[in-house]
Structures are given as C-alpha cells and as structure tokens.
Hints:
This protein is mainly alpha-helical. Helices cover 55% and strands 0% of the residues.
Amino acid sequence: MKKENQLSSTGGFLLVLGALAFFLPMFDYQLLILSWLGGMQQPVGLSAMVIGGVLFAMGKLQEIRNASPVPSPTDPLPTSPDAAAAASGAESPASAEGPIA
Length: 101
C-alpha cells in the first residue's frame, strides 16, 4: 500500500478549502467555519488556494523524484550466440544444416 504524501494531502485540503472560501461568497453562501472572517473571507480564501497549490505541487514533485526508476525500454543484449540469432530472427547453425541422415 502506497503511503500518502503529507504535503500533497495538506495542499489539496487547503486548495479546496480556499476555493470554497473564495467562490461561495460570490453566490451569497459562506462556510460556517469561516464566517467569522467577514469581508476578509475572499482574500483569506485566495491565500489558502495559493499556499495549497504550492504545497500540492511540491508534494507531487517530491513523489515523482522519490519514485522507483523506470526500467529501460530496450532489452539487454543476449549473451549466447543462439540467443542472439533467435533475437535477430536468423536461424541457428544447427537448424540451417537440415535433418541429420
């Protein structure tokens, strides 16, 4: 199970809370928990959105940086001559001679 990055989750929470605090007063609604801010609700919401966005982006960048490396798309070169011939599609020397009489 993958552990949630705390920067991403905190940033996402602040981003959503800030968006609600910023946009709801435009429609004559407000969050009860933020009603004490009065006229400062939208500036505080905008600030929370900016800070939340920065934290969310930093958390996602940290996840990308700490992710396991992606394996190379090319296969390693075969080590035996028969494997090299099979990989290139050529017949091996034993099968090219034909049936043994």
